Amino acid sequence: AQSVTQLGSHVSVSEGALVLLRCNYSSSVPPYLFWYVQYPNQGLQLLLKYTTGATLVKGINGFEAEFKKSETSFHLTKPSAHMSDAAEYFCAVTSSGGYQKVTFGTGTKLQVIP
Amino acid sequence: EAGVAQSPRYKIIEKRQSVAFWCNPISGHATLYWYQQILGQGPKLLIQFQNNGVVDDSQLPKDRFSAERLKGVDSTLKIQPAKLEDSAVYLCASSTRQEGSPLHFGNGTRLTVT
User: Does the CB of A51 have a partner CB in chain B at under 8 Å?
Assistant: First the structure.
């Protein structure tokens, strides 16, 4: 079985401050990990994904995430928050082998304060 | 490439009525997903198709929900009869069959049951 835990349903940061959104996963086999962003009244858009190889993954809009197997974590960061980053962010996991079942976390709503 | 198309964008019905949602995935994507997203929660998988076969419908309330994917392309999701707790956003997504491939989402259908 696989699962994703996102710590903090709401995170507030000041514009220009570091963004850190936390995600921990559980998977019995090597996972594929994703971060998606959802703006109001829209579907989810892929920010970045980890498959294999380099553990530091760079995504769109200046976001990046680091895969840490020992900590079963895949936290999302951005050095400097922008007002346009205000949205809801979802971490997701899928496992290798079999059909691709994708499990989402409960989401973290990011507020950026001017 | 054209994205995932969904219709309608919004729907308001009374409880015990029926409703249907339509999804057209990205051309060539073998896998199609229907997710239910209740306000403030992460997407919950309702049903997953690989071509026109169902690979996972374990969380689909089969007494009231049904879905089909004719010819392995378009898909419809139906609710009959609707309950108040069905109020949610219904998201359609598609992906290739390649292991670890990301999901591409439509903008969703917001259903309100009164």
Answer: yes
**Are the C-beta atoms of residues B75 and B25 closer than 8 Å to each other?**
yes
What is the H or E stretch that residue A94 is in? strand A87-95
- In whole angstroms, give the CA distance from residue B13 to residue B28: 33
What residue has token string 């498959």? A51
Residue B41 with chain A: CB contacts under 8 Å: 106-107
pLDDT digits (tens, 9 = 90+) for A28-48: 777 899 999 999 888 999 999
Between the alpha carbon of residue A87 and those of residues A92, B42, B85, the distances in Å are: 16, 13, 25
> Which residues 67-106 of B have a C-beta within 8 angstroms of A?
91, 93, 95, 97, 99-106
- What distance in Å separates residue A37's CA from the closest CA in chain B? 11
Q: Is B31 on the interface with A (CB under 8 A)?
A: yes
Tokens of B91: 């998201």
Strand extents, DSSP E, chain B: 5-7, 10-13, 19-24, 31-37, 44-50, 53-56, 65-68, 75-79, 88-95, 104-105, 109-113
* Residue A49 sits at the chain B interface (C-beta within 8 Å): yes
Distance from C-alpha of A42 to C-alpha of A97, rounded to nearest angstrom: 31
Q: How far apart are CA B100 and CA B112, in angstroms?
A: 34
The 10s digit of each residue's pLDDT in B63-81 is 999 999 988 899 999 999 9
Res. A98: pLDDT tops 80: no
Q: Exposed/middle/buried for B63, CB within 10 Å: 0-12, 13-18, 19+?
A: exposed
